[in-house]
Write a structure and sequence with these properties.
482 residues; alpha/beta; three-stranded antiparallel beta sheet; 15 helices; 15 strands; 25% helix; extended; binds S-adenosylmethionine; transcription regulation; histone H3K27 methyltransferase activity; SET_dom_sf; SET domain-containing protein; chromatin binding
């Protein structure tokens, strides 16, 4: 035990029995790290800064050639925490003692580092949020001071856009901090029709409280709102147009202004219709698509029609190409297909995560994946999960994979390869076999499926497979030749 000033107060010694486990356990083979993941993750391209030189101690790997894929080494980047602290202090003093705006300081370019973030590059204010404020003799920044990049903008629309940017722009996903779809998003425009909005109005039947406009004998007239109040109203109404006027008034911080006329006028004035389009082909200007023009792509109704399968004599649905979705290599859609809710729907296993339990063990070729439960023909065994990478990164990583003698990448579509070298699940250990190998032919197969608008890879059983069996699939002609 140590005292608060680091002095040893007392010592305890514990005797341990050392067990030699060598005859019982094999040593684990040397392996690169791989982060476990349940879902694909967008990577795009590896950074231009090389983080470390692979196989730096191995003369048979051409490090010089390999480094030509990168622009610089990350350890060449200047990183000076002292400079960052001094610059924060400088900007704070310029602002508080000399009344200069942070934006003006930035524009003058007098500081060697940027205060505000730009796309992909965090600024000094954002960096300072990630660590504790340093206590040092020159500091005059109060502990509770908030630098501007840390504060939300005062305008409601901008504040909501800040929050909105945390959510995925894909209407099929909308997950917070989504790692798969990475296009920045704007707030979606209104999606209800004027008729529905006035209907909402008509639905308000009983007064919500004593001051409610419904209880008032006469309306109070139309109060005067500032532009920013009207702007806030518009934003709230676009997001939640089905709210009752009473709730809208509370959300707009106008609880006492429950004038029927006011709200009715505001509803009509700010409302814009946005019905999903019905044309064939992509939403673009050529088709004068209304949803394209206002930036609200109606993804599902535009692209797909759902299947109408029901469980037949076999007790399952969507198991053959008679199913419209199966025919077009996509999984059934929860919003469009009749069969989706059925547990017997055989064409929604990837999105439902209905895979089998696997165990990793020794195989003839390093490690392999083994089933720990019975699988029936066409059951999903696993989803092949990894990083979504572009071609240049596939090529640069390919050099390392060739040298390592093991590759974990899988062509997904014309844009992406899935690579589970550094991120994946147990499916990355599935080994190869071909039908020519009569003793151990492949017992599963990989299929690329369109799952709610995105390509994913499912590994499906080709036959019934007993627990304990190693699962093997045919990697295809090109794999070993390349
Ligand atoms: C997706 S990994 C499979 C897991 C790998 N066995 C491991 O230990 O990490 C693919 C790599 O496994 C090896 N492999 C898999 N099946 C093989 C086979 N039938 N013959 C030779 N090598 C094989 C090759 O090195 C290949 O690049």
């Amino acid at each position: 035990m140590y005292s608060p000033n680091g002095q040893v107060v007392s010592e305890v010694s514990v005797s341990l029995e050392v067990i030699n486990a060598e005859p019982v356990l094999d040593t684990h083979p040397t392996y690169e790290s791989c982060s476990p993941s349940l879902r694909n993750t967008f990577k795009g391209d590896d950074d231009d800064n090389m983080l470390f030189i692979p196989y730096a101690d191995d003369p048979s790997f051409n490090q010089v050639d390999h480094s030509s894929w990168y622009e610089s080494f990350s350890w060449q980047e200047d990183f000076d925490p002292d400079l960052q602290v001094i610059l924060l202090e400088t900007s704070y003093r310029l602002r508080t003692r000399h009344s200069l705006e942070y934006e003006d300081i930035e524009e003058c370019n007098v500081l060697p580092l940027k205060l505000f973030s730009s796309p992909g590059k965090p600024g000094l204010f954002a960096i300072s949020r990630r660590r504790d404020r340093l206590i040092w003799i020159g500091n005059s920044i109060p502990a509770d001071y908030v630098f501007p990049s840390m504060a939300l903008p005062s305008n409601l629309l901008q504040r909501l856009q800040c929050v909105n940017s945390l959510f995925c722009p894909s209407l099929n996903c909308v997950e917070p901090l989504c790692a798969v779809h990475v296009v920045p998003n704007d707030l979606a425009p209104p999606r209800t029709s004027p008729k529905q909005a006035t209907q909402t109005w008509a639905d308000v039947e009983t007064p919500c409280e004593r001051q409610c406009f419904l209880a008032a004998a006469t309306s109070q007239g139309v109060p005067c709102w500032s532009n920013s109040e009207i702007e806030s109203f518009q934003v709230i109404f676009e997001i939640a147009s089905s709210l009752s006027p009473c709730d809208l008034s509370v959300m707009c911080l106008k609880p006492s202004e429950r004038s029927r006329i006011l709200w009715y006028e505001l509803l009509l004035f700010y409302f814009g219709s946005n019905e999903p389009c019905r044309h064939n082909g992509p939403c673009d200007t050529a088709r004068a698509c209304p949803c394209f023009q206002n930036g609200a792509h109606c993804q599902r109704p535009r692209r797909l029609r759902g299947c109408r399968c029901s469980t037949g004599k076999s007790g399952v649905s969507c198991a053959t190409t008679k199913c419209y979705c199966v025919e077009y290599h996509r999984e059934c859609d929860p919003e469009l297909c009749l069969s989706y809710e059925l547990t017997a729907c055989r064409n929604s296993q990837i999105q439902k995560g209905a895979h089998k339990a696997l165990e990793i063990g020794r195989s003839c070729w390093g490690l392999g994946a083994f089933l720990t439960e019975l699988a029936k023909e066409n059951d999903l065994l696993a989803e092949y999960v990894g990083e979504l990478i572009y071609e240049p990164t596939f090529d640069s990583r390919g050099e390392v994979a060739t040298h390592r003698g093991r590759s974990y990448s899988f062509k997904l579509n014309s844009t992406f390869t899935l690579d589970s070298s550094y991120l994946g699940n147990s499916s990355r250990f599935i080994d190869h076999s071909s039908s020519a190998v009569q003793t151990r032919p492949p017992n599963c197969r990989a299929y690329v499926r369109l799952v709610n608008g995105e390509h994913r890879i499912g590994i499906f059983a080709l036959q019934d497979i007993e627990p304990g069996s190693e699962i093997l699939m045919d990697y295809g002609h090109d794999f070993f030749s390349k």
